[in-house]
Amino acid sequence: MRKRFVMKWWYPLAAALLLAIVALVQQSRSTAADAPAEAPVLVIDAGHGGADGGAVAADGTLESDINLDIALRLEALARFWGVETVMTRTEKDIDYPADADSIAEKKIADQHARVGLVNNTDGAVLLSIHQNNYPAASPRGIQVFYGPAAGSDALAELTQGSLTALLCPDNRRVAAPVDKGVYLMKSVNCTAVLVECGFLSNPGDLAKLQDGGYRMKLAAVMLGSYLQYIRGAAT
User: Fold this and answer.
1) What is the pLDDT of residues 178-219, one digit of tens each?
2) How far, in Å, CA of 178 to CA of 144, rounded?
3) CA distance 107 to 187
């Protein structure tokens, strides 16, 4: 059975406030009513999962768990704002094909399934959620990457600007093209961005990412950026 993130009563209020701030930062009146009549479908990808935990923090925190938590919060807020969504996964576990025996085979099968889901979704806009990692503890901050499809760079720059202004104003990272080796991003045929929400290898970033309130802020600002993007794309 599909697990749902349970929205507490104050989440909509916090989301509304954050979205209003984002709108001011971008000098735009972005609300759910501003979305075009035939709004695109927001595909929310919680990176990794199942046999693939992704990056691992020094205290054992798995990237895949943080990714999923943020993704579920984002979906809950999106539903509150009337945004149609599709999730690439909603649980920790992933159903793999019977012939996928090794971890590598499971990863490949999972990535192929995600690409198929995105490419079979009419009007998709992909937002993939990840966490960064580095051998040294000093790198920190949020960075947004964009795929090759039209509109990806614009959405990435808008999202990067909003996340930086509201959550990490001293962050000097800028939106950039995604590495060509990222299979999901290079294989989908729609507008696509990948958000590295922070570094699990940085104690400061890790502490923030382990806080549910901060993860809610990340989700709210991402949604605000998406709403602004689709409003702009429709004008």
Assistant:
1) 999 999 999 999 999 999 999 999 999 999 999 999 999 999
2) 9
3) 15
Summarize pLDDT for 103-130 with one digit per residue, the tens: 999 999 999 999 999 999 999 999 999 9
Instruction: Tell me the whole-structure pTM to 2 decimals.
Output: 0.86
What is the residue extent of each domain of the chain? 11-233
Query: What one-character-per-residue DSSP string does 97-124 give?
Result: -TT--SHHHHHHHHHHHHHHHHHTSTTE
CB-based burial, 9-31: b 16+ in 10 Å, e otherwise: eebeeebbebbebbbebbebebb
CA distances for 106 relative to 49, 96, 99, 168, angstroms: 10, 6, 9, 35
Would you list the DSSP string of 86-98? EES-SSS-----T
Residue 16 pLDDT more than 90? no
What fold is seen in the domain 11-233? Aminopeptidase (3.40.630)
Classify 52 as helix, strand or coil: strand
Q: Which of 171, 174, 170, 192 has its CA nearest to residue 183? A: 192
